[in-house]
Amino acid sequence: MVRQFLPLNGLRAFEASARHLSFTRAAIELCVTQAAVSQQVKGLEKRLGVALFQRLPRGLKITAEGEALLPTVTASFDQMATTLDRIEAGEVRELLFLGVIGTFAVGWLLPRLADFQRRHPFIDIRVSTNNNRVDPAAEGLDFAIRFGSGLWHGTEAQHLFEAPLSALCIPELADDLRTPADLAGATLLRSYRADEWSTWFAAAGVPPAAQVNAGIVFDSSVAMMEAALQGLGVALAPPSMFSRHLSSGAIVQPFTTTISLGSYWLTRLQSRPVTPAMRAFSDWIFAQA
């Protein structure tokens, strides 16, 4: 965005005068003459076409227009001062933009993110979640954490770990499941991949004739697990992403059979230069993984 010229001297004189309600005291603070402060404020008023102060015999009274302008000017100067102090102290803040699959964000990243913040207090993270459909270029992402084979055009993908899928449900439903074939009588919850349950049944030794693939389809494992918690059916999801539910006993894994249909990957566009913040996050997440 192209900004019009900002009258910084006038704004500075206005802000100091508004705090003191005096050109004289503002001049003392700014180490200039009272006449210079008065002229700067008059120049700003002329440019805006409004009066910012009423000149009184003993001081100033701020106008409605001045009241409207003051919070923005004060906040802007405070922010600039804080940033300059941090730069001077070698504490430059960096932004890191992450696109993360919702399941991974809730089940793995968020419980560990406080550790990254402690280690890197001057990196501010912006997290956006998705259901594995992401456009890093359009969304301006530094990294995208994705699930799949690791093959995305124009992308550098670094393997994090696999997340095998297994049947998960509430204990009440698990009480009726003696063998994997018993799932034929249960409501099955799955993602948009139609082959997940048939692949799991084959791994569990259930013949095709006994398999049932109908059920409720979700675009997010987080939503699917919420449905499982409410007893709507049996989810096929990665236990490693829902360890807290398993530890609390809210969800159980009735069978040991698991299948692997992909892995989690840390990805970035090959055209995106690696910043210090990106390097710090990459080193941290691989140490955690």
TrEMBL record:
Residues 6-63 form the HTH lysR-type domain. Gene3D superfamilies: Periplasmic binding protein-like II, Winged helix-like DNA-binding domain superfamily/Winged helix DNA-binding domain. CDD domains: PBP2_LTTR_beta_lactamase. The keyword Thylakoid does not apply. InterPro entries: AmpR_PBP2, LysR-type_TF_proteobact-type, LysR_HTH_N, LysR_subst-bd, WH-like_DNA-bd_sf, WH_DNA-bd_sf. It holds the Pfam family HTH_1. SUPFAM superfamilies: Periplasmic binding protein-like II, Winged helix' DNA-binding domain. GO terms for molecular function: DNA-binding transcription factor activity; sequence-specific DNA binding. The keyword ATP-binding does not apply. Keywords: Activator, DNA-binding, Transcription, Transcription regulation. One of its GO terms (biological process) is DNA-templated transcription. Coiled coil: none annotated. Belongs to the LysR transcriptional regulatory family. This is LysR family transcriptional activator AmpR. It comes from Rhizobium phaseoli. The gene is ampR.
